[in-house]
Design brief:
about 300 residues; ornithine cyclodeaminase, domain 1; alpha/beta; Rossmann fold
């Protein structure tokens, strides 16, 4: 039996950020996913294999190679594929472009949290990192916060200028501290290992969205940021054990696992902002269950024509 191959451009033309957030909400009302993650490392290089099974929604397997040094050779740093399988008989249902699933899953995950945690009147949004994820965050947040003004910071000013040129009205900042202090929402997607964002820079009412760290030795915000904020994650199962953003401070005694307020599987009234003055922090771990939900959404839109 032939299965559809869903390429990036043709698949993306059918998608909508807010509808994807709704699909994530619906997916988390289903039984909790069974998740199996495997990480293999060779220096800075990573082989990531993620699988998820949600009873009633099916199975997805996503494999990716992440080679940060590829850029020096004119190659993309990430390669892989996503295969959704039918829940009833285990049949392969599609081959979905890896980058399509990753783009929409990653930014959609953060946007789902921001719709619950950021102040609805947020008007100043700072994107930290001008890479591929930074661009998708600009698209996603621009949909949910259409009246917001966007500022961009990146280690390389030239790359920030390139991205800003593609999104008219985006301002490039040179001073990260000043940009963080001025923002209502800070969304960060970098490859840093040492924290870039300091808790001392945060002010009441902000929402901090952390995406970049995916290895045990990576984090984007310091201990003070965790201490000052109410902390949320997409899944305790996929963030606490192997992502440095939480693993490092937990092992150092600077943060406790039980200090996480909620993840998406908790009742919605727990995963929300409680006051205009509190600081909220969301760690986007991007587990395989989200890949499955996203791939299902993409496949449904493809089938609908």
């Amino acid at each position: 039996m032939s299965v559809p191959v869903i390429p990036f451009a043709e698949g993306e033309a059918r998608l909508d950020w807010l509808a994807l957030c709704d699909a994530f909400e619906a997916g988390h009302r289903m039984p909790r996913a069974e998740i199996g993650d495997t990480f293999l490392y060779r220096g800075a290089d990573t082989l990531l294999s993620r699988a998820a099974w949600i009873d009633g929604l099916g199975i997805a397997v996503k494999s990716a190679t992440i080679f940060p040094g590829n850029g020096a050779h004119g190659l993309a740093s990430v390669h892989g594929g996503v295969n959704p399988y039918a829940d009833d008989a285990g049949l392969l249902e599609a081959i979905v472009d890896f980058h399509l699933v990753t783009k929409w899953k990653t930014a959609g995950d953060s946007l789902t949290a921001a719709r619950r945690l950021a102040r609805p009147d947020s008007r100043e949004i700072l994107i930290v990192g001008a890479g591929t994820v930074g661009r998708s965050l600009r698209e996603a947040y621009g949909t949910a916060f259409p009246d917001a003004r966007f500022t961009l910071w990146n280690r390389s000013r030239a790359r920030a200028d390139e991205m800003a040129a593609d999104f008219p009205g985006t301002v490039v900042a040179d001073d990260l501290e000043a940009a963080v202090r001025a923002a209502d929402i800070v969304t960060s997607a970098t490859m840093t290992k040492a924290p870039l964002i300091r808790g001392d820079w945060l002010r009441p009412g902000q929402h901090l969205d952390l995406i970049g760290a995916f290895r045990p030795d990576m984090r984007e915000a310091d201990d003070a940021a965790l201490a000052r904020a109410r902390v949320f994650v997409d899944s305790r199962d996929t963030t606490l054990g192997h992502i440095g953003e939480l693993k490092i401070p937990v092992e150092a005694g600077a943060f406790r696992a039980e200090d996480i307020v909620a993840d998406y599987y908790d009742p919605p009234d727990r995963f929300r902002r409680e006051s205009d003055e509190e600081i909220t922090l969301f760690k986007n771990g991007g587990g395989a269950h989200l890949d499955l939900m996203c791939a299902r959404y993409i496949l449904s839109r493809w089938q609908a024509g």
